[in-house]
């Protein structure tokens, strides 16, 4: 009999290309991966891995079994979804992930609602950036993820994933209160061509979006500082060290010395839930999406017409990138 955990390990190696990357994706040690593969080779009587320089490669037998493993694991996922659907109630563990501001702004009320409405469901939340969440859902490490993209920069999703919109998150420009544009009703990004910017960490989805958007407006970005958390960005702005894009979902109270002004042509982040399409019938997925949508509706209602200036703001949490 082929062991599902060992097939899952082999499938992870095939996807990631190395034992260490597979271990990271499965949240286990490299030793555990090696032990699982040694047992699987004994069970099959075949060599599945071979050395390739400093790394490894799948043998012909390894590739053959990895292809079967992917189909088997997909069928297991489908069977679990149909069994849960047959029972008709959200039950068991539901592994979820979200980028930091969504984890803080959406999940507390959504998780509380799930606990009250479905006591047999055990939702588990982990903060992850959007790209990591997408990979987690594809690998099967995460059942449902909340991710984002920008109005002018969609996030690429692999085939086999389903998604549901949760809310649109407007973004403004935060600047020192003594900035020449601080008293305006609206601003244009082009008006900040001479300013230094505070951005998210390099190579992150939101940092790349900022560079792309400013250049599309004819502004060559002058990035002075990088900070992952929005409240750190706002503290730097309060000290007069630059300007930044300030999404409302992650804002929290705006500190003294900071003004936040809407952009005339609104910049919006689209926030949505994603999950594997073969798990679409799971009542737990449907219950979680419904709870997150209700949380999103409440957040959107609180955002309407609210722009934080010098100590006021949208009280929906302060988090990291996104």
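Sequence proposed for the structure above (322 residues):
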């Amino acid at each position: 009999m082929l062991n599902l955990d060992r097939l899952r390990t082999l499938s992870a190696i095939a996807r990631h290309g190395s034992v260490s990357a597979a271990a990271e994706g499965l949240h286990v040690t490299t030793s555990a991966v090696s032990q699982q593969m040694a047992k699987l080779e004994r069970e099959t009587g075949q060599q599945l891995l071979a050395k390739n320089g400093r790394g490894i490669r799948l043998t012909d037998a390894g590739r053959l079994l990895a292809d079967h493993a992917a189909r088997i694991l997909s069928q297991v996922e489908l069977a679990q979804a149909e069994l849960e659907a047959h029972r008709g109630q959200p039950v068991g563990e539901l592994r979820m992930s979200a980028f930091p501001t969504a984890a803080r702004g959406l999940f507390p009320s959504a998780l509380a609602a799930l606990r009250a409405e479905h006591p047999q469901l055990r939702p588990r939340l982990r903060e992850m950036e959007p790209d990591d969440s997408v990979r987690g859902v594809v690998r099967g490490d995460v059942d449902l993820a909340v991710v984002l993209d920008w109005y002018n920069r969609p996030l690429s999703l692999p085939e086999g994933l389903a998604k549901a919109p949760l809310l649109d998150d407007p973004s403004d420009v935060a600047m020192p209160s003594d900035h020449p544009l601080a008293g305006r009703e609206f601003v244009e990004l082009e008006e900040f061509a001479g300013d230094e910017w505070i951005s998210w960490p390099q190579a992150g989805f939101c940092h790349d979006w900022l560079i792309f958007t400013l250049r599309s407006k004819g502004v060559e970005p002058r990035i002075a500082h990088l900070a992952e958390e929005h409240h750190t960005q706002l503290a730097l702005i309060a000290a007069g060290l630059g300007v930044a894009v300030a999404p409302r979902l992650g804002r929290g109270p705006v500190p003294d010395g900071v003004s936040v002004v809407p952009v005339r042509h609104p910049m919006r982040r689209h926030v949505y839930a994603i999950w594997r399409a073969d798990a679409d019938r799971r009542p737990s997925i449907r219950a979680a999406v419904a709870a997150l949508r209700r949380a999103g509706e409440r957040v959107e209602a609180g955002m309407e017409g609210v722009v934080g200036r010098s100590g006021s703001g949208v009280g929906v949490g302060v988090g990291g990138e996104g």
